[in-house]
């Protein structure tokens, strides 16, 4: 690897540089790489904990799992001082604007971990007051499945975030913003879907069409001349 | 052992004093008195609603001072009922040691009822909830506004004809909870919902005169995830995972309460081994819950060391739960009529080791916190709640016992074999934050005593009731003979069919009386499931408690009340 490669920024992790210069006290790298390395090793998480997941989040920060080993133990309850948000728990409609405000208050660059199925997709609360995934309103970098996820899964998510920081990746737009306020007509609720089907069937009946999904049975007449294989 | 197929006892002429007094005083205005599985239900006409409640509370021989619950039920499509809605009140008499249920029919065309806030202070938020979810107007209610859903919500979602997934987006949060007087120079401080002291989901607005709070208002519903609506389209089994997420600090206890409530409805009893294991795990869950409460409370006051100590031993309790059922936090271990599977072979040894460990860390925390001057000054004589007021609000559990009322369901109405164990019920004398803390700490030690005794005489035998209509057959039989296969299929497909009727099952959860009011119409889903959440009553008193105190005290008080959002908003 030559000097030109270093200037082009091919080295991303100074610790992974194979040959430290003779004497061991000089490492050549790029500013970008050093900044990224610093960022990923000193994440300041902001816990946005609302429900059961917050308890497992606390378990991750407490003595047994000890997130300090990954350099992310400085929990900040002020969004102004944080660069990684953990959304731990169900987010309901009432909480939505609050979450959005908090996210907007975080300085760039920022990353979001959606912890648990409730935050990721609404989970098994598929009902009138639960947001079906926080990505309706804010971008999400890493989704962690589980109800609630184990602390190990959460640590894996922190490592994924560190990977993303190294690669310079960051989501900018909410992935599911098109779903915002989806009324559930046909999309979410079984009963609403059935009602929508019934409406469509009635419309088709008025137009003289059979209901969608019903395949009309065509009886082939038994005629040995034209169709010798039949019957 | 009673079987699930046993017909429920016919409603008899009630012998209880409540029915007698109400009949004497109100005469024909008492429409009917029903009894089902030992629960007494008195139905009155709407015009006698407030008078009946007043009688229940004030007559000395009745003494129903503890307000428990008020909820509405929607009987849409029920041909036998002339009125669509029903409003149900649950109260308890600490001196007489019994519950009572008062019901009134409300028509769809004119859903109006006089408010009970003049009788029980605790009815305030419950009536707001009934208005929010069912659209029942309580006349002369001081503040009849939406409480669980948001102010842009359209419709009343718990009505049977409201589609479950019909959402309404909230574009902007409600800015003002308080009415600031014109020309006032006081400062409004908004705390929460995203504030570390508010644990993520509570919001309080305080009107400050310097450091003193002169007025306060709370908003809840930041965690309203519709457990009750979801339960109306779930079978009795499928509801078990939802109950885990009510009070998620002690999930097992919620499932325990739910199983007992359904067993009461079915008229069955779990085998002794299952009951003993339930007691052991419930008590460990109570310990975990108190650990979270004490740990986070002192974190809010600035001490982080006890939090690390207590969470360390919590991990050890998690290990026990994980060994039993494979999950750490949300366990889903109970089944109707027993438990999902037997405990591991080394269960008793694990429990004994755990008891030592819990005792060690509890003592350590006790030494760190209890006599700490800073802590004592922040806690003593802060947030004092007199016993009479606590009953009126409907406080239960450690908070009520901190105020000096020795009401513990494990002692007063033993369930799951609590009568076999020897333990004490700690009570406070002042009713301040310090008393509530001491009660919790002592309860941890009493729980350890119960566990020790339960482990010492852990009975053998089956882990789930032998009843084909309730429990799944063993897997090896399902794979080897057709009857068991059919049985399995039918039970999974049709669910448990409970007899028509309504019961109120209650247990002593970590925060107090956790009640499940189940209305069954004989189908596989409950028609109505109302959780009587201990936190709802407790948090309701919070804005009143912090008035006149310092802002810093408000933080100390809320941590000690141990309000859990999942249970508060359901």
What would you report as the Rg of chain B, rounded to the nearest angstrom? 24 Å
CATH class of the largest domain in chain B: Mainly Alpha
- The portion of residues forming beta strands of chain A comes to 5-15%
CATH architecture level-2 label of the largest domain in chain B: Orthogonal Bundle
Q: Which residues of chain A form runs of ≥5 with pLDDT under 50?
A: 184-188
Q: How many H/I helical runs of chain B?
A: 20
Walk me through the structure.
The complex is a heterodimer of chains A (about 230) and B (about 575). With about 230 residues, chain A is an alpha/beta fold. In chain A, strand 1 (about 45-50), helix 3 (about 50-60) and strand 2 form a beta-alpha-beta unit. In chain A, strands 1-2-3-4 form a four-stranded parallel β-sheet. Chain A has seven helices and four strands. Residues about 185-190 of chain A have low confidence and may be disordered. By secondary structure, chain B is α+β, with helices and mostly antiparallel strands. Chain B has two domains: about 15-140, 2-Layer Sandwich (Beta Polymerase, domain 2); about 225-565, Cytochrome-c3 Hydrogenase, chain B. In chain B, helix 8 runs antiparallel to helix 9. Chains A and B meet through helix 3 and helix 4 of A and helix 8 of B.
Brief overview:
The complex is a heterodimer of chains A (231) and B (570). With 231 residues, chain A is α/β, with parallel strands linked by helices.
Could you outline the blueprint of secondary structure elements for this entry?
The complex is a heterodimer of chains A (231) and B (570).
Chain A: H1 3-8, H2 31-41, E1 45-49, H3 52-61, E2 84-88, H4 96-105, E3 111-115, H5 116-121, E4 142-144, H6 151-167, H7 190-206
Parallel strand pairs in A: 1-2, 2-3, 3-4
Helix pairs in contact in A: 2-6, 3-6
Chain B: H1 17-26, E1 30-36, E2 39-44, H2 49-58, E3 66-74, E4 85-93, E5 98-106, E6 112-114, H3 123-134, E7 137-139, E8 187-191, E9 203-209, E10 212-219, H4 227-231, H5 239-244, H6 251-266, H7 272-300, H8 305-325, E11 334-335, E12 338-339, H9 347-369, H10 373-379, H11 387-393, H12 397-402, H13 409-412, H14 433-456, H15 475-478, H16 482-494, E13 501-509, E14 512-520, E15 528-532, H17 534-540, H18 542-546, H19 551-561, H20 565-569
Parallel strand pairs in B: 2-5, 6-7
Antiparallel strand pairs in B: 1-2, 3-4, 4-5, 8-9, 9-10, 11-12, 13-14, 14-15
